[in-house]
Write a structure and sequence with these properties.
Layout: H1 5-33, H2 39-60, H3 66-96, H4 103-115, H5 120-140, H6 148-188, H7 198-214, E1 219-226, H8 229-236, H9 238-255, E2 262-267, E3 270-276, H10 280-297, E4 312-319, H11 327-343, E5 349-353
Parallel strand pairs: 4-5
Antiparallel strand pairs: 1-3, 1-4, 2-3
The chain binds guanosine-5'-triphosphate (GTP).
Guanosine-5'-triphosphate (GTP) is lined by residues 192, 225-231, 233, 238, 241-242, 245, 268-269, 342, 346.
Length: 354
Amino acid sequence: MRFNKPSELRRLRIALIIGAVLVLVFMAADLLLLPSSMYQLYIFDRLLIQFPIILTVIAISYWRKFIQYRAIVFATLLVALSYSNYWLIWVCWTEHDFIFPYEGTILYAFFCVFALGIPFKLAITVNLVNILGFLGLMWVAPVYGDRVPISAAFVSGSLFISVYARYRLDRSVQMLKQTNDRLLKLSKYDPLSDLLNRRALREQSEKLLALSKRHKVSMAVLMLDLDDFKKYNDAFGHQQGDEAIKIQARIMKQVFKRDTDILGRYGGEEFIIVLSDIKKDQVAKHCQALLNEWEEAALQHAQDAKHPFVSCSIGVVFAKSVNNCSIDWLIDKADKALYDAKERGKAQFVLTEA
Ligand SMILES: Nc1nc2c(ncn2[C@@H]2O[C@H](COP(=O)(O)OP(=O)(O)OP(=O)(O)O)[C@@H](O)[C@H]2O)c(=O)[nH]1
């Protein structure tokens, strides 16, 4: 799952606007309930404190670094909204003897934690601050009389549930992301060599070819095949053969390090390397480096193999311009060059030009 900054920003702004509209809707509902003597106080709290706080956050969302600091901004928003609610409850009680409901505090917590996405650790801190605030309010102004303990328990419990639910949600998303990454890797990479599998190799090669055509740069396709691998398997066993495949992959990664180099397992003991924007003599140098690495590895081959140590043959096609080329055509050319390398005695490379 990739984080998409513009769409996340849009989503958050929409959530904030919905929040602001909800405050207005609740205002209308509350005004039906409240005695008219309290209208001024109530409207002051909602319209001149809470509503502008939300509008300020919407304005802050246009700040360049908002996404980076959004969790802190939303945590501050939650504290500000909750404490302005506490203030309203307190003033209603002390000045008008009116018992203002506390449910808004819970709604604000759920809205900020879920709709705006305050992460788990920050949600604990902020909700703790809000629970302490509510308990403090109940201490200095026991608004709900006999119901103070149950009200305090209800507010604390609800805020705790929002934090716990956030934790479960974060964990599930994290696990989903890990599984997704694993599946993506499995669908793209060959598990034995950790190189691209045939399908991913084709997809990436097509993309690189399109880019090379657009930028009018050269390309080279190398096809590699372990020499007398059947004999190696027969002599040392399939498992040892798998080790040789891993060595081949390691050598390829050692020699071809550019970000744009595409390394893949084409099938069995055949590998493909696709390069872009490279000179012909550089390609030849890299092929020689591959052969040298195998020589240095000095891995004993089967007695009846052509060479005493395990080696590979390489067929290369180099195209200065790829305007009229397709990937299939380039692979076919590299395959023919590989056949030539095998015919000429193996453990060597044959480079042809398209
Ligand atoms: N250990 C192992 N062997 C494999 C794997 N994939 C293919 N092979 C073996 O690779 C061998 C390929 O043999 P051939 O196609 O006859 O080629 P070769 O023996 O390398 O002969 P040349 O290509 O002429 O040098 C077969 O024995 C396959 O079983 C694999 O994943 N692991």
